[in-house]
## 1
Amino acid sequence: MSGNIIRAYAAKEAGGKLERYDFDAGELKNDEVEIKVEYCGICHSDLSMMDNEWGFSHYPLVPGHEVVGEVVRMGDAVRGLSIGQKVGLGWTAESCQHCDPCIGGHANVCSQAVPTIIGGFHQGGFADKVRAQWQWVIPMPEGIDLSKAGPLLCGGITVFQPLLQHHIDATAKVGVIGIGGLGHMALGFFNAWGCEVTAFSSNPEKYDEIRRMGAHHILDSRDSGALAAAQGTLDMIVSTVNVKLDWNTYLGLLKPHGVLHFVGATLEPLDIQAFSLIGGQKTVSGSPTGSPAQLRTMIDFAARKQVEPVVEEFAMSDVNHAMEHLKSGKARYRIVLKNDF
């Protein structure tokens, strides 16, 4: 078998199950790193891409963009990495490196960035190996649990990035909408950052667990009286959900100059009244994952503060069972595949 053959699990069509798929990745490029996959997290975005929910999937498609593994090959232009080093790879596998965002340290918004799971252009980490441009290959710090680090490289940076984007400091009061795969990591990061953290949840059975994950306060999102009493108390609210909510109510919970920040991909238009923004000079914003520098900052902070996701582990060969577990909504709270090729 050629040294460029990668063994993987791929979706051959929208809505299809994952099947064993071997492909020739071609010669390693000068700026590429080849990673032997040890663990790969499953993100809901993998499911969305498999089902072509966003309209730009290409098949066959190998999902998986929360990779942790070992450097086994490097191109001649690679810098700062070494064979045998433990590394990770998230949503983005390469960017142009010459546009203004790339030069300015914001390569996560490069218009030519290539996602790790874009099918015909790049294949992901549900495989024995994966490749990426070296800038996007993130060194794993000492002391981090490699079996839990994968979800930090997508879900973790997604909720960590708003702290950097909006210059949030430890005096801030922040809220989290949606305590699931993204939201539970947001609670941990915001608490470790030093913030006073409020979770929005209407499920009392989860309240003890939500507090253990980092929330100082819980607001019942269906209790209009509790929401009214909390008006004007938060500096930032991060929404991790993909459903439509009464966004004007949440804007009302913000202090003047507060931010309602979206990382959950709700597909319906946002119904926001102009006066909900104007009166308090409030902001609605959003962000994709993060730049290579932000990813390094996040993973180092996570290791130092011992922020890690709650995970369930499956063998990679059991990937279809794992995907069904995700679809059922029973995942608590992230799923990680262990490579058993």
## 2
Amino acid sequence: GGEDGSPEDSFRQEGLEMTEITIIGGHGKVGLQLSRLLAAQGDTVNAVIRKEEQRQDVQDTGANPVVADVQDMDVAALTELLSGQDAVVWSAGAGGGSPERTYAVDRDAAIRSMDAAKSAGVDRYIMVSYFGAGPDHGVPEDDSFYAYAESKAEADEYLKKTDLEWTILGPSGLTNDPGTGRIDVTHKGDWKKGHTSRDNVAQVAAAVIVEPSTIGTYIEFNDGSTPIAEA
């Protein structure tokens, strides 16, 4: 390990270090915080944003802003976007807009990005999903959350069938509370009753990128008592 013997240092020495990472959804609260964390540890971070005016916020984190609307990009354009990367983190979303836009971004664009990652030779793929996601999400069709739940279910299931080195994160209800660096990993309970700070979600994403044992896992979590690396 490193001087403090941290596991992250030993992964980096074992040749699994990530040097260039693309975050799709780079202006979201999770994306901005993740950019800060990764840039601070010396990674090159390319944060994909939709608007020119978001550029400065991204630069302030130490990341490189990349203005591109993934909703309008085909697999070939996304492949070019992801070329040369060591990992991609999908943290984008339509943000509860129209159902049409939700399906276009959270399902269709996400799936195209997985095909593009494969095509670009980027093996490591981190998906930010939510606690309770999946085909049996149980959200009724007349609920405004239904399009999102369906989109995430389809995108997550598609990702699981790829041969990418995927990890899916399932945080419960998101808050803007300060990150504690501690979570509880659980598959029990109703996601609507739990909560997770966006800061903690970013910390979990940063931790799993360099943790090979998380490949092929769907991690549901709440803010809790276990240090993230241990959890």
## 3
Amino acid sequence: MKRLRTLLLIFSFLCILSYAQQGNYKFNNFGNRSILLSGNVTGSVTDLGLVYYNPSRLTEIENTGFAFNIRAYQLSSLKLSNLLGEESQLSSTNFDGIPSMAGGTFDLFNNRFAYSFISKTRIDNALGYDSDVLSDDILEIYPDAESYKVSVLLKTNVKDDWFGLTWAKKINENFSLGVSLFGSIYKYSGGSNLNHTIRSASNRVTFYENSIGFNQESYGLLIKIGGNYHFPKFDIGFNINVPYIEVYDKGRFLYTKVIAGVGADFDQFYDYDFKNLYSQRKEPLAISVGSGIPIGRSKLHLNLDYVTGLMEFDRINIPGIDTGEENTTSVLFEESRKSVLNFGAGLEVFVYENFNVYGSFTTDYNSFIKNANIFDLSSDGNRDVSIGEDFIQYSVGIDLKLRWASIIIGTNYINGSNVFTSPLSIVKSGIVNDNYANTKLEYNRWQFVVGIEIPLLENTHYNMNN
């Protein structure tokens, strides 16, 4: 049975756009000051980001009333070189909003509470490529080709919204505990279309189309358990992310294949739409430890984040399909992850009263072993192409405290590149020709944040015991 390498090509590049935010655990940060400190705040968070990084720290801050990011944008670029030959290139540049959060805090029955909304992941990308160049590879397969057109369109969308309630309480003068409970609404979809059209000198037209689409929906719960201990000269905090608890899941897979103009023995048309498929979303156990160490009126922030791995599982369980071969062809959408350890540090520099400067860095290692980006329809084994990048993030910014609000301005930068082997298939008389080339992925992102914290509830705390 021949491998349909075109499917592998399409999904390898399609899923690059979405999986960086799912296989790299520190790709996005939340909370105004926490963004400037690159998320290195497990033992020192002082903004609403505590609901995400360490809920116990809620007992260590004043009532924030209401906080939100009023301006949060990013400029990102993705470039794929040597996709359809040495001179080919796919590129995409986007300027859009970044995942952000909003919420506030209140007191109730001598306990501290916070409510929050986090747009955890937001991706809506597309890549397109068109070419009419008759390369040597094409002429080798179709010697009488006179004109040629190839068109590739890739789309991906990921949306993950969290709605949370956080509780925290002082156990004694130095030790606090806290819990955040989030409900997650997760939707992941992708689509691709690949067309080859070849016209020969005799005016014969050969056409090949391969279209794929999928959807995954998951609703579930995420729990974070945090603790904070106050030593005389510094604080130490920990945060435990409980594995994702899935409540509802559903998947869908669409596949269309057309070969026309080759001949009656080889022309094909297949069209499938599988609905209500069994699917899974998994997020592993993670433990973070951090410390905030005062240096005069400034502070050093240190952090370690350990995330466990995941055994191989099917993200979407797709039935075997008939692709014109002797046996039904399996469709695999598998994922597995390795454990990763990230570390980082941030420095909060006191300049003068009510004005601080921030600088930080953090590692962000890719966890994927298999990242469910291969739809390799074959019966004689699969060729795995694991796509992911290791990033280092850098952030700088300022915090200006005014009488009526705190204003935070800053930027975050990450970049990375990866080289991997990917196949391109061109069909001739039912035969798939495999050409392998090293494709280079380059990714850059600048984030720009202007945040504001307004103490709307400062004089109206909800405390039922007063």
## 4
Amino acid sequence: GETGTGKEILAGAIHSTAFPSGSAPYVKINCTAIPDNLLESELFGHEKGAFTGAVTAKKGKFELAGGGSILLDEIGEMDLRMQSKLLRVLEEKEFERLGGSRMQVMDTRVMASTNADLHALADAGRFRSDLYYRLSTFQIHIPPLRDRRQDIPALTDVVLSELSKKLKRSITITQEARRCLA
């Protein structure tokens, strides 16, 4: 879906449905916010001394999400080298911390989101087609709000309810304001 359609909210809802007690971790990582040379360490962790500046061992996002879910947000921006490593982890269900020698078992539900057309990127050679097919076992396209105006009243009610709870007082808007939103 496009930027702002609620991909991260939907992923959180999927996680909450799978783990209603809230006991399983839900880890999100924005693949565009982390430089390519640090993404591997962020995803899989590293051992002390694995690279300059690695003064302690650090768990990666996959390890932190163990038993729960991980959302790889904007995966379409991930470089091809990192895509290869991710594909291997998804296929083998295990990974190694950077600089480590012990395999970690991956017990994590993996969700990926993007505002790009991954199929087109794969056709153009800018996204690994094997990773695309591994990730696309179940796709959800989220149309922009302009294409689902019928959702605006319900979304408005949810926002107003949450705001009322936060402010500890009732917040309402006029029917004219609702018409303007729609």
